[in-house]
Specification:
Layout lengths: L5 H26 L6 H11 L5 H21 L3 H19 L12 H16 L6 H4 L9 H41 L6
Helix pairs in contact: 1-2, 1-3, 1-5, 2-3, 3-4, 4-5, 4-7
Length: 190
Amino acid sequence: MTFFHRRDLGLLLLRLGTGGVLAAHGAQKLFGWFGGHGIEGTGRFMESVGYSPGKVSATAAGLAEAGGGALLALGLATPAAGAAAAGAMAGAASVHTPNGFFNQEGGYEYAASLGLTAAGLAVTGPGRLSLDHALGHTADRGWMAPFAFGATGLATAVIVGTRIRRLRRREQGEQEALFEEEFARPVRAN
């Protein structure tokens, strides 16, 4: 008979809660479920906040959230699932950072909380009430968490960095257009 510790139950609850929320957010992006906008609407939003091409960005974010969330909830491939979800949340947090910390002001609090919880689960492991445990941890080896975080961190840095450069160019172009418009007006005589 197997004895489960409180830690295993706690990890199960964290995995189910965090994974379920992430999977639901991903389903909003991918399928338009739960009041979401699907790939088309999410793609337009992604373009508006500097993630381009929008549909590709929406698909990648949706897959990281839905796939990472579902795998976290199941406790399967936990290092990769947690790292993927944390990367997606880092990308989301970068969109909300200009609004400050708190979610009620449109800040990054919620994305950061989900990302940190997913990262914590990837590092801690899924516990014994998981598919990883049932399968002998074949997809949850010690080397997998650092590898998954390294790959996800690199990809996230490139994607978010590209977004920031794109937004700066967009802002600069808008300022130049305003400047040209202002000085292209005919001067009126008094």
